[in-house]
Structure formats: C-alpha cells, structure tokens
Amino acid sequence: MADAKQAKLDEIKQKIIKAKVTPELAAGATQLVFGVGSPDADIVFIGEAPGKNEDLKGEPFIGAAGKFLDEMLEMIDLKRADIYITNIVKYRPPDNRDPSPDEKSAFMPYLESQLEVIQPKLVVTLGRHSLNCFLPDLQISQCHGQPKRYQGRVYLPLFHPAAALYNGAMRQTLVDDFALIPAIIEKIKLS
C-alpha cells in the first residue's frame, strides 16, 4: 500500500516540476521541497513554505523550528517516520518572506492531491498561513488546539513552531496543544 501511495506522491511532485508552478519562486530556490514521511500516516503536518535550510536539503522543517517539532513529536511517542510533513508552497520564497496569496493558490491543488493520496485522519496546520488556506474564516489566536471538522476532514490548528522560538510563552501553548493530538486521533478512530 505504502509503495503505491509513494509512487502517486512522486507523480504529484513531477507534475509540479513539469507544470512549472510559480516559475519565479522556482528560479530563486535550490530545489522543490515536496514533503517527507510515511505515505500511510494518520497525521499530516502542513507549514507555509520552506526556509533556507529546507531549501538546501530538500526536506521540510529541518531548521530550529523543525528540531522543536521533533521534540514535540517525541513527547507524544511519534517520530518523523510515523507522520507526513509538507508545506503549502513547495519552493522557498526569497528572503523567507511570506508566500503570496497567488503562490499559495498555485500550490493548493497539489497539496490537496497529496492529502487525497495519504488520507490522513488528522491534518495539523502549523501557523496562520496554513490554517487560512483550509479554514479562511478562523484566527489562529482563537482556535489553536481546537480540532475542526470541515468537508470530511479533521483539522487541528496549531501555532507555527517558529513562533515559539521567538516567544517563550508561545512555546508552552504549543506544547500543550500538541499534547492533545493522541486523544484527538483516538476520538477520530472511534467516530
């Protein structure tokens, strides 16, 4: 099963390259940062766009925010191999600027395809950009840590791990919200 899903994910990656999605972003990036993890994952984490380290290595969430994400995964007895992690935008925006609405829109069909292949029980949005691509009417400050069912999927909005690196109080909020994930997954499996 995982092999067939991985083959489909590889096809989506090739489609992005072939379709020349956001050519100006692609021109400034080292490579496409598609996503990593298990194609059979129950949980998909979605950030906004790759940063400098991610662009160089071709893997999402490997800088300081990624290390914090790994620590939080460990707290709930998960490893990167158990989950799938990606970003909305698959090329690094110049100078780590926020991705534009057009850039996010250009990648959304491919992100939706990734989710259709993986079929996660829970989609964890990391930060407001990711949240607002799926649930545009919500504000992260008001809904973080609260699962939302929308169009047949369950979303868990979380603050971006990078936010916790700059704000100590945010760190504990993120840890507390993250700790809810196992119970949410259990509830989804029972429903």
Can you characterise this structure?
This protein is α/β, with parallel strands linked by helices. It has one domain (2-190): Uracil-DNA Glycosylase, subunit E (3-Layer(aba) Sandwich), CATH 3.40.470. The protein contains 10 helices and 6 strands. Strands 1-3-2-4-6-5 form a 6-stranded mixed beta sheet, sandwiched between helices. Helix 1 (2-19) packs antiparallel against helix 5 (101-118). The protein is globular, with a radius of gyration of 16 Å.
For the record, the CATH architecture stands as 3-Layer(aba) Sandwich
Distance between the termini: 24 Å
Counted up, domains total: 1
How many E strands?
6
Number of helices: 10
CATH topology tier name: Uracil-DNA Glycosylase, subunit E
Helix content: 40-55%
**Percentage of residues in DSSP E strands:** 5-15%
Rounded to the nearest angstrom, the radius of gyration is 16 Å
In CATH terms, the superfamily is: Uracil-DNA glycosylase-like domain
Q: How would you sum up the global shape?
A: globular
Spatial order of the strands in the main sheet? 1-3-2-4-6-5
**Average pLDDT across residues?**
95
Largest sheet: 6 strands, mixed
The string of secondary-structure elements, in order, is HHEEHHEHEHHEEHHH
Fill in the keyword field for this structure.
single chain; 191 residues; alpha/beta; Uracil-DNA Glycosylase, subunit E; six-stranded mixed sheet; 10 helices; 13% strand; globular
